[in-house]
Design goal:
Chain lengths: 115, 112
Amino acid sequence: NAGVMQNPRHLVRRRGQEARLRCSPMKGHSHVYWYRQLPEEGLKFMVYLQKENIIDESGMPKERFSAEFPKEGPSILRIQQVVRGDSAAYFCASSPPLPNTGELFFGEGSRLTVL
Amino acid sequence: SQKIEQNSEALNIQEGKTATLTCNYTNYSPAYLQWYRQDPGRGPVFLLLIRENEKEKRKERLKVTFDTTLKQSLFHITASQPADSATYLCALGTSNTGKLIFGQGTTLQVKP
């Protein structure tokens, strides 16, 4: 009965490199959300995905960031050409198909440090 | 502009007392409000959800109120314990998805 699994837990990248963060939702959950938590700030919504579909990406930066949730395998948040300002904790959350209770189940996060 | 505010200062209370945390919002019409607990280096953990047509919700030692006129939610922990020490986040939901707007969180420290 594993929860939401995120990896890597910690990732260090140099400016200009790419970061790939993975998220496996809880079993039976078909909705995945990505949130970003900057130091001393609250969680900010980035993107909401269902299998093979991006439902809402209103919180995603326009450039360098992309997300996918393929038919098979984990959801991926990809950050190209990372900059120091991308250093943050990235949390994935999942929820069951609608109708659901509304609660989100969060992973432990992936902490990205850009040198 | 839209804002959701929680007390930024840490709340320090004595074990056994009731902790009360506040969440205020402006220029939102949330369908529901949630409270989460977050420990250092960990992901948020869901605690309670209260809908716009509900005034109060309870779960064990936890109680949440929701006043849509005042645009405020209060989160109470009765008989607090040192193990309750954590950061507590409130989050607004305006649709039937998991797209939430989070406050910055209030850190609670319960002293033995």
